[in-house]
Amino acid sequence: MTSPGLTPPEPNDATQPTASELIGQALGSAALKAGLDPAKEASTGHVVWHAMGGWRGVAESVLPSLAFLLLYTTTSELPLALAVSVGIAAVFTVVRLVQRSPVSAALGGLIATGLAAALALFTGRGEDNFVPGLITNAVYGTGLLVSALIGWSLIGLAVGFLMNEGTAWRADPRKRRVFFWLATAWSALFFVRLAVQLPLYFAGDVATLGTLKLVMGLPLFAPLLAVTWLTSRALYKPAAE
């Protein structure tokens, strides 16, 4: 059976998932791995904290950047600051491997830190250590905004998978409206980061850029994640009951 409001696939493609379904499955699976499981009863604070990875996740996200910022601004030794930053990320990854715990987040952080360090080392400019983060903000912000504008909110695709609804939410004007604004809010977060940090990058102000990157990271991510979680749960609460 096809979802309401969607064009039925051709008979030969009936068993083939659509691109939107594949994206929804990927996003939903990532959300489940992060602890965003609507089937489990837990406080919003617990869900958000678990999604961030707890103390270890916060440390993996913050310490490499913080080490780079402190060392570079106090010593002006770019190779030393980069080496310590990458080394911290590598230690977190090795610890996860030894403990046989999920390494995807730590490994992703290590790769991102390594690429950023390689670029900064190649150019000799400390501010280039932040280029991958700026690109990520631009890509995520654009993707979320475009998905909202064309009516295929990435937030909706993820929630639809989590709630076993697929893309049927698109036939509900209320859900489409809510998912539009949620995707727009996430897009705004990434674009605000970009708008604040990009001028500092061009000005070569590494100290302020690094500080604001930390301030505009988890402290902004966590509240928006909580709002998204609460809004999505409220949207499906009558159906769940």
From TrEMBL:
<feature type="transmembrane region" description="Helical">
    <location>
        <begin position="144"/>
        <end position="166"/>
    </location>
</feature>
<feature type="transmembrane region" description="Helical">
    <location>
        <begin position="105"/>
        <end position="124"/>
    </location>
</feature>
<feature type="transmembrane region" description="Helical">
    <location>
        <begin position="78"/>
        <end position="98"/>
    </location>
</feature>
<feature type="transmembrane region" description="Helical">
    <location>
        <begin position="178"/>
        <end position="202"/>
    </location>
</feature>
<protein>
    <submittedName>
        <fullName>DUF3159 domain-containing protein</fullName>
    </submittedName>
</protein>
<feature type="transmembrane region" description="Helical">
    <location>
        <begin position="214"/>
        <end position="236"/>
    </location>
</feature>
<keyword id="KW-0812">Transmembrane</keyword>
<dbReference type="Pfam" id="PF11361">
    <property type="entry name" value="DUF3159"/>
</dbReference>
<keyword id="KW-0472">Membrane</keyword>
<dbReference type="InterPro" id="IPR016566">
    <property type="entry name" value="UCP010219"/>
</dbReference>
<keyword id="KW-1133">Transmembrane helix</keyword>
